[in-house]
Amino acid sequence: MVSNAQFLPTNSSALLVVNSKIPLVLVLDNVRSLYNVGAILRTAEAAGIEEVILSGLTPAPPRTEIDKTSLGALKTLKCRYVRDFKSEALSYLEKGYTLAALEQTETSINPFEYTIPFPLVLVVGHEREGVQSEILTLCSLHLELPMLGTSVHSLNVSTATGIALYECLRQFCYHK
């Protein structure tokens, strides 16, 4: 369990930053399930990211299903809705953020074998269709979680997002 100290020394002499935000903006691009949205918001708040942007067809709070699965994350997590993320993406690029998509593409790389750049905008997409192509083309980095099973070729968007966020947290806090 992590205390509320500002910095905690670790065995590796790295610093774990607590009560600070990771310079990471998470974008939910057409994630349709209310329960996935709520679960992702909960995970995003727990990982200490800067902000969540809900975009396109992604449902926005207040919704009972989102409130139930997010378990109060919206009390402290910065979250907003934009109809079309494309103009927002350009704004983040101008601010020096790297745009990354969590998506299976021909150029995607394993985030566990790559040094993730910060500040970062991480885009996750629709449960079946993934990130919209016009958003995907703006992303200079495509990240893909390794799938070692023989019959399952993808994870639930909430599960995949949680894994990716915690890899970002690990790299930001322990590999500066």
Helices, strands, pairings?
Blueprint: E1 7-9, E2 15-17, E3 22-29, H1 34-47, E4 49-55, H2 64-70, E5 79-82, H3 85-94, E6 98-102, E7 120-125, H4 133-136, E8 141-143, H5 157-174
Parallel strand pairs: 3-4, 3-7, 4-5, 6-7, 6-8
Antiparallel strand pairs: 1-2
Structural features, described:
The protein has 176 residues and is an alpha/beta fold. The chain has a single domain, classed as SPOUT methyltransferase, trefoil knot domain (Alpha/beta knot). It is built from five helices and eight strands. Strands 5-4-3-7-6-8 form a six-stranded parallel β-sheet. α1 runs parallel beside α2 and α1 runs parallel beside α5. The N terminus is likely disordered.
- CATH topology, what is it called? Alpha/beta knot
Q: What is the multimeric organization of the chains shown?
A: single chain
The percent range for strand residues is 15-25%
Give the ordered list of helices and strands.
EEEHEHEHEEHEH
Largest sheet: 6 strands, parallel
From the alpha carbons, calculate the radius of gyration and give it in angstroms. Answer: 16 Å
**Uncertain stretches of 5 or more adjacent residues:** 1-9, 11-15
Structural class: alpha/beta
Q: Which sequence of strands runs across the widest sheet? A: 5-4-3-7-6-8
Tally of separate domains = 1
User: Distance between the terminal alpha carbons, to the nearest Å?
Assistant: 22 Å
Query: Strand tally, please?
Result: 8
> What is the 3D shape?
globular
* Average pLDDT reading: 91
Helix proportion range: 25-40%
Using the 3D structure, state the CATH architecture. Answer: 3-Layer(aba) Sandwich
Determine the CATH superfamily.
SPOUT methyltransferase, trefoil knot domain
Total helical elements = 5
